[in-house]
Each structure stands twice: as structure tokens, then as C-alpha cells.
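RETRY 2/3 - previous attempt timed out on the joint model. Re-submitting the same 462-residue input unchanged.
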Amino acid sequence: MSNALKTSIREFVEASFLFREGRNGLTNDESLLAAGLIDSTGILELVEHLETNFGITVEDDEIVPENLDSIDLIAAYVARKQGAKITGIAV
Amino acid sequence: MSYTSGKQEAIRPCRRDDVDALAGLFARSFRDGKGGGSTELRRYFEDVVFTGVGAGEEPRSRVFTDSTGEVRGFIGIWPRQMQLNGRSISAAVAGSMMVDQPELHPTAGARLLRSFLSGPQDLSFSETANGISQRMWQKVGGSQLSAGSLDWLRVVRPAGTAVAAAQHAFRPAGLMRPLASGFDMLLQRLDRNPLALPAAQDGVHDVEATAADIESLIPELSRTYTLYPDWHTPSLSMLLTHAEAKERYGVLQRRIVLDRNSKPVGCYLFYARRGQIARVLQVLALPEHVGTTLDALFRRAQELGCVAIRGRADDVLLDALVARRCVLFHGASTLVHARDKELLREVCHGTALLTGLAGESWTRFVGGEFA
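RETRY 2/3 succeeded.
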């Protein structure tokens, strides 16, 4: 997984969610849901961002904390989806 | 290949054995926990989701289940066939979206909404969206219809209206009703009520109507809009039957407005309760008779002792409402979504009939008591 991918996701999360909550920092493994940074509206915003900017399709059953709850998890999920796309695995 | 593992939160179509859980969820979400065990509420869910309007057809109402399989969220979905500028399109209306402890299930609302919007319908809409739902719809490309997101209020008895509004927040305020009533009567006798209604136009009058009368007239009057239900799928008679019982709002009044040649030019349905604010289910009229029909509605509500009349605006009603000293304010939002952006543009730029019987307000979830 490239650092550029993680950096890009971090930039989006910071701009979209951190700013609204008035927080200064966030670690890569910190839970966005537990920190109250993201709700259902935020989830949709995040999914729309991932689909638009990373060329992936997020399936409904993939909208789970295991895939979207931290910068690390999001980056890993996107990388897996992109990898699957490149190698032609049906998702 | 799926990027999920083990027993997960899930979205699935509603099943009959979900009814008990849905009744409890509804009570916790909308009734402060009261009435979750009500047999009537459970029966109503059974009726409206499984045996009633659009039952068994896709798109179907959906539930969100947590990792233990418990039902924690719901979105009511009712299919509709509609006419858009003379052609038939499939649509679906969503409502009664609820999530148990959303802080514990933060993905539930998003997944329920996405699941609904990804259904087979050409057009998705809701007329009862709160602020959170509105933002969610707009994040996924939905549009808010401005006029359809406005409620209107026409006051006919000022003091009575103040008391009714106060009573809504603080029940004992209702004790002030006799005093308010006396004050409003005094205003009327002195001809000092600034919100007094104008007299009826010569020859125009309105009469009580049966459900069958209304059923035959609504399809004709709906053609005033560029988008309206076909009233066959689901049948208008079924919607009207559901709309009969809204204990919180009062008794349903059905009236037809006739011109001087006794030709029907409009109709209205509203719930009346003496001393309270009347709640309008639907107002439909030929374009040149929208104002006349509203006037007839206001007069009838006043005759029944209502202190004000409240309803939902739309593009066809808006000008006449403004001209009749109605107060407009944002209540719930009417939202539309379509994968076909041209279709969405066509809906947004036309006049859409998406509320009342056309939307979700015919259900007893809006205004029903379920004791």
C-alpha cells in the first residue's frame, strides 16, 4: 500500500471531518466512529469520495467499520479493491 | 470477492418475523418508547409492509441487522407507478427510516439509504426527511424540492392557535382554551380579526364527498402536475382506506369544490378537531381554482372549530398560499433521486405531486395513535 494513498485519505478525512469537530490531530489507527468524527452522512461522503477519486465501487456490504473505521483501514480497503480490479478479480 | 468477514451487520428485505422488532423500534424512535408492545402497531406493520401497498414487490422495505442478527434499523419502501410528462415511470417512496441507537450503528442509515436508492425504480423520493436524512440524500446526489419542503399554516383564530401551539409543547396549556376562544369570538364580533376569511365567491361551493367520489376525482385533478402517481399501482382506494384513521389529527373530512355550474374544480382532505390545528392530507384543484379551493378548505375548517390549518406546499399551491396570508416554514423535506440525471432534472424543473396520498403521509405512521 502506497504512502500516497494513505496521505490522500488523511487529507480528505482531515478536511471533511476533523475540521468540523475542531480537532487538531488524528492517528492513522484511531477509530473515526468511536471518536464521533463520522456519522451516517459522513459515511456517505467518504464512500462517494472513495468511488470518485480511487476508481472503485463500494458495495453495500462493504460499508462496515472493518473497512472504513480508520485511515489505516480505509487505505488497506482501497488498496485491496484496486488490486482486485487490476488483477481482474470479480468483486 | 467480498471485503467483509464473519457475521456482519447486514441489510436485507423485511420479513414477517421482524414485525415485533419493528414495532419496538418504531416506539423507541418516534413515541418515546410508548406502545412498542401494541398489537395494533404490530398489525399495522404487518398490513402496510406485507399485505398492503406494493407488498411483495421490489423494491421492498428493508431492515438493518447488527452482528448478532438483531433488527436495528428500518426503511419503509413503497413502489409507485407514476406519470412524468405523459410517460410512465417506476418510482418508490421511502419513509419511516429509523435506527436504534445510531451512535452504536453509525453505518446503518447510510446503508439503508443506499440500499433503497440502488433499487430497480427510475425515481426515488421521500416527503418526510428530517435534517439528517436530507443531508444524506444530498450526499448521494439527491435533490430537495424547495416548495415541497415547506409547510404552510393559515391561522383563523389567533388566540386559539397560540394555545394549540403551546399545548403541543406543554399539555396543561390547553386549560387556556376557553379564554382564547372567548378572545377570538370577541375579535370576530368586533370585526377586528385581521385574519378573517373572505366570503365565498358567488356560486362556488363545496360539498361533503364519499371516498368513492374523491377516488374518481383525484386522478383528473392530478394532471395539473407534470409528475403524479398513476393511482392504480398502488390503488388510490387502498391509500384512502389507510388515510382514514389518524387519531392524533382528528376526523378525516373529504370535500369536493364545485363551480357555479356544479362542475367539480377541486377537492381537499383534512383532519379536523375542534380547538386544534387542522392537518391537511391533500389539496388538488384545476389551475384557475387553486385559490378558490383553499378558501373553501379554510372556511370549512373554521366552521368545524379548528383554530388554524396546516399543510404541505408544492409548486402548484405556493402562489395561492402566499396570497392568502399563509405562514410558510420548513418542516420535513421532499427529496428526489434518480440515477438518470436527465430524469432528475425533469422532475426538479417541473411540478411534482409527491406528498400526501402521493407520498408517505397516507400511512398511519404519520398521525396514528396505536393505543
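Residues 290-303 of chain B form the longest helix (14 residues). Closing ticket.
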